[in-house]
Amino acid sequence: MSGQFQAYQIGKSDEGQRCVLTQLSDNDLMEGDVTVDVEYTTLNYKDGLALTGRSPIIRKFPLTPGIDFSGTVSESSHSGFSAGDRVILNGFGVGEGHSGGYAQKARVSGDWLVALPEGLDTRHAMAIGTAGYTAMLSIMALEDHGINPGDGDILVTGASGGVGSVAVAILNRLGHRVVATTGRMNEKEFLIDLGAADVLDRADFSEKARPLGKELWSGAIDVAGGNTLANVLSQLKYGGAAAICGLAESMNLPTTVAPFILRGISMYGIDSVNAPISKRKIAWQRLASDLDLDLLDSLSFDLDFADLPQAAEDILAGKIRGRAVVKVP
Predict the structure, then answer these.
(1) DSSP track, 67-122
(2) In the list 7, 38, 42, 72, which could disulfide-bond 129, CB 3.0-4.6 Å?
(3) Exposed / middle / buried, residue 91 (Cβ in 10 Å: 0-12, 13-18, 19+)
(4) In angstroms, rounded to a whole number, what is the distance separating the alpha carbons of residues 275 and 245?
(5) Would you call 197 helix, strand, or coil by DSSP?
(6) Are residues 70 and 29 in contact, defined by beta-carbon separation less than 8 angstroms?
(7) In 10 A of CB 205, how many CB atoms?
(8) Residue 66 half-sphere exposure toward CB, CA atoms < 13 A
(9) Where exactly are the structural domains of the chain?
(10) How far apart are CA 127 and CA 129, in angstroms?
């Protein structure tokens, strides 16, 4: 008899998409060579879109959402993993086209997994989650560009969210002077506690951008897109760079070529879904060494597994601060 386990499942009918908490069996697990007992998951913006059906994130029905998880391998025919190994999964279409972390069990390809780095436990891994991992990929892109702490301020947009809050904390620890933007100025003290030297209102970046603005930032990490990103690009210093990892404001980019050809700036697209395992391993090792775990605890909070549907509405409404950690029952 196949083992029963608890899972969220999203189905689709003529009435639309519907998410239910249900019981599944091992026969419902999808293809893969590693089975994981899921211990923790989290709530990302993309998960909010999937759970609510606001955007066509789910590509196959029925499906268990959840784009990341951490846990312990229970069965494996993959050469890289054995029963008892602790692992992390981010991306690779999990929670979109392959059942993901909002379940007590997941079966996936071992090629998608990263071994839990020394210094992290499975809860810390999901306090970091895809958002924190994306923040580290963004920081690595700015470092590869050659940006150093002495080069000037780094701007982080949407800093109250998951990517932004982790980025602020890590950049500050690495010695950078960080300026944060947020649409919730009541979060100013929270961001300063994370390491922001200054906090600006998101509204300051909401108007149509000039082709060239005052040179303010050596680098930037942007989660917004739209007018916000256009303004950020126009304000980059000569030779500066922006790492682009979100579209919370807009997918559009109403800008000009002026800052690129007159100031020699660069823009790096950050793909957290299909990044190669070699880069993922480096990012997770860096997270284990460069992120203050006490600070991580201060920017994360516990979210009950049963409350995920309501929390999905909250994250889309901008009501979630920091990182939500979900203990899978």
Answers:
(1) SEEEEEEEEE-STT--TT-EEEEE-TTBTTTB--SSBSEEEE-GGGEEEPPTT--H
(2) 42
(3) buried
(4) 13
(5) strand
(6) no
(7) 22
(8) 33
(9) 4-116+299-327, 131-269
(10) 6
Residue 68, exposed/middle/buried by CB under 10 A (0-12, 13-18, 19+)? buried
- Give first-to-last CA distance, the chain, whole Å: 21
User: What number of CA atoms fall less than 13 Å from residue 156's CA on the CB side?
Assistant: 33
Cα 111 from Cα 113, distance rounded (Å) = 6
Examine residue 259 and say whether the peptide bond preceding it is cis (omega within 30 degrees of 0). Answer: no
| Residue 292: CA count within 13 A, CB half-sphere | 16
Within a 10 A sphere around the Cβ of 325, how many other Cβ atoms? Answer: 23
Tell me the average pLDDT of the chain.
Answer: 96
Q: Which residue has the tokens 């916000």?
A: 228
SS percent in the chain: helix, strand, coil, step 5:
35, 30, 35
Q: What does the alpha-carbon distance between residue 74 and residue 85 come to, in Å, rounded to a whole number?
A: 8
Query: What type of residue sits at position 224?
Result: A
Q: Specify the CATH number of the domain 4-116+299-327.
A: 3.90.180.10
Residues 141, 144, 145, 150, CA torsion sign: positive
CB 280 within 8 A of CB 271: no
Parallel, antiparallel or unpaired: strands 196-201 and 217-222 = unpaired
If you search the block for the tokens 């196959």, which residue do you land on? 60
**Fold designation for 131-269:** Rossmann fold (3.40.50)
The DSSP call for residue 255 is -
Task: Report H helices in the chain.
Answer: 45-52, 122-145, 162-173, 188-194, 226-234, 258-262, 277-290, 293-298, 308-316
Please report, for residues 68, 70, 289, 302, the alpha-carbon distance to residue 323 in angstroms, rounded to integers and kept in the order given.
13, 15, 19, 9
**pLDDT tens digits along 165-212:** 999 999 999 999 999 999 999 999 999 999 999 999 999 999 999 999
**Predicted confidence band of residue 2 (pLDDT cuts 50, 70, 90):** low
Instruction: Please give the average per-residue pLDDT across 299-311, as a whole number.
Output: 95
